[in-house]
């Protein structure tokens, strides 16, 4: 796969210590996101099923970042060691191209592993090099990092650029079945992981996941519409028209990011001032924003679909405040921010208007989550 040229918002990390700090930050953040998910479930904003599925996507995301950390472990030290490119403006995450390359690498992981020494053998060689030659085994460290990377790819369970739709049965409602469809993408427009969940009522004769006619079409349709630039209303109404016997009752989109850091990103607006004024120590100099968009069907209309029959069409509720529903294409939009105590103290002192309606989760001692 050809390399993607750097754009102004993209930056390569070419120093080993910087790369390790970057991934250590994300290892902590992804673990904290799991705890915030539990808090949101306890508040009733996520069902148990939704929280469980979101937790699985977060686990896969953490595994992807861990694999990337192995891949780039020797950046700047070993010849040919890959560098990480991340979006430093309004994202903070690795660019989508990194995950696309991982998908290509995964197809050949077995071939690479067959031609490599085992991790145990590489470690033995490293010890001998250090003890006998009194030399730093940089080449062997690089070989081990690549071995660990391909092992992670071979194990699977990663968050890919495309995570195709899956289906979770919820309950039967009369002669219909209530499913929760879920899928995720690493959106190339914003370089962020985005999770989708859609509650549907299925009136089809065959079980949806066993229907080899409808289910592949549903999967292809949803993946084609999974773009951050599309409004939920556009996605849901398009699905409603395309599949007359599958009725979307709720569509949820969760943007897992951006991640802001005074050290790594070029943020603008109040968050820039908050992080600058916080002057937090390394490891606590960050804030992660979640955005949850919901679109909910408020009623059903029967519309003509020919001379002799009608079909159901969903009428979705839009945000009634100041006409924002027409602009956002959603029933409601909720923003949340996770941040350590030091940046939170700066945020509380400054109290910028744009953050007053944002739900805040503060990371306390022992990484305990405290709703603020």
Number of helices: 11
Q: What number of structural domains do the residues give?
A: 2
Largest sheet, strands/sense/barrel: 9 strands, mixed
Strand elements, count: 11
How much is the average pLDDT?
Answer: 93
Beta-strand content = 25-35%
Structural class: alpha+beta
Shape: globular
Gyration radius from CA atoms, angstroms: 23 Å
The secondary-structure element order is: EHHEHHHHEEEHHEHEEHEHEE
Span between N and C termini? Answer: 45 Å
Question: What is the helix content?
Answer: 25-40%
Uncertain regions: pLDDT < 50 for 5+ in a row?
none
Tell me what you see in this structure.
The protein has 372 residues and is an alpha+beta fold. 40% of the residues lie in helices and 27% in strands. The protein has helices at residues 16-42, 48-71, 96-107, 109-114, 119-133, 138-155, 214-224, 232-242, 270-278, 324-328, 341-350; strands spanning 10-13, 84-87, 162-173, 176-187, 192-202, 246-260, 287-304, 310-317, 332-340, 359-363, 369-371. Strands 3, 4, 5, 6, 7, 8, 9, 10 and 11 form a nine-stranded mixed β-sheet that branches. Strands 1-2 form a two-stranded antiparallel sheet. Strand 7 (287-304) and strand 8 form a beta hairpin. Helix 2 (48-71) packs antiparallel against helix 6 and helix 9 (270-278) packs across helix 11 (341-350). It starts with 9 loop residues before the first strand and ends with a strand. The model has no long low-confidence stretch (mean pLDDT 93).
